[in-house]
Amino acid sequence: MSVKILMICLGNICRSPLAEGILASKLPKNKFKVDSAGTGAWHVGHKPDYRSIAVAKKNKISISDQKGRQFSKSDFDSFDYIYVMDNSNYDDVIQLAESQEQKQKVQLILNELFPNEKVDVPDPYFGLPNGFEIVYNMLDEVCDVIAKKLIDKHQ
């Protein structure tokens, strides 16, 4: 049985598709399944932002086949780990949780690098021209830590 990890951001077109692609590239596919979703429904069915696709491709990761989807309550039952990109996403997901067990699955992703500091992965959508590169590098670093933890725990 695969260990399932879900990455969540606001629209599921910038940060969470990158996080999905990066983490999936670091984990054995036969043991782990990584997916992503957004807390909002604006981009359901759409490909990731072209800038996320480009920065992933530059780093030899393909995310162009991903399709945006919205987080739903059933994801609490489907996934073992849920990583959110920022505090707003965290609050939105936690509000949907119906038990302490569901809440415990949800983690702010950068807490893996900066425990209890509640650091956000910035949303690059309206940001600086190099924002997608900055976000990629942040996610790549934190996904190294997450992948090691998951492999150590589940292998």
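That was protein one. Protein two is written in the same sequence-then-structure order:
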Amino acid sequence: MKRFLVLILLMANFYTLLAQQQEKLHIKYYCTNWGNTDSWDRFCERVKNAGYDGVEAWLPGDQKERKEMIDALQKYGLRLGLLSGGSGVSFDQYRESFKRNLEEAASIKPDYINCHTGKEYYAFEQNKQLIDIGQVIMEKWRIPVYHETHRGRFSFAAHLTKDYLTKIPALRLALDISHWCNVHESLLADQAEAVSLALARTEHIHARIGHPEGPQVNDPAAPEWKSTVSQHLAWWDQIVAQHKQSGAKVLTITTEFGPAGYLPTLPFTQQPVADQWSVNVYMLNLLKDRYKE
């Protein structure tokens, strides 16, 4: 009887441990190809060696380059997240372009699609049509479709995005909160309610550090940005904690510091004041260490 009870306890502990492991949140890290000038093969080799899980990119329109991208991803065992958006002079043109591009992106079967959705000057109902298209395509292809908080899009400002989130319960965000810091010229202390709602509805993070006068600090490792970096980390900590509490299995993060032009440059020479690749890898290692399992 004693042996039987010991066996029961051991089995109970085993299944408890197994359940805990199954519920553990897995964070996948993606590298932006924004600003990349290497071949897809060389780029993916660097991405893999740096410790990323995948790449986030716009789907190449050129079929030859598209094949090179897919071949390189397969060669180095990397995942893919796609960006998608629309274009057109009129809203009708934009809507058709947005739908067509999103369908084409979904046909590649990426891990997720991150949409640059609508325009800041479109009416609520117009932008909602685009969000609804994303929902239909997500259900059709069973691929997550997110809408990025981004200047120039429906989600360019915290208070307006709050209105969309309130009225559209299915709306899920790719949070790039650096844009809001720039738009509102603050670290958003006076918009706690809007930010809290956005964090609760975030499924993908663009890990770039913004500040009140721009969407990208020159180098997040510099001591003068310590408090700004800490605020961004506090926001991301909430998203990670919420995913763990909800039992989510995956959270995706892209390190997305941009190239020279977006990255500040010196006058006359246009020399970037920091190295884009090094900054993104710094963010990768900072986050992997912070959220290590």
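The first helix runs from residue 2 to 23. Keep this in mind for the problem set.
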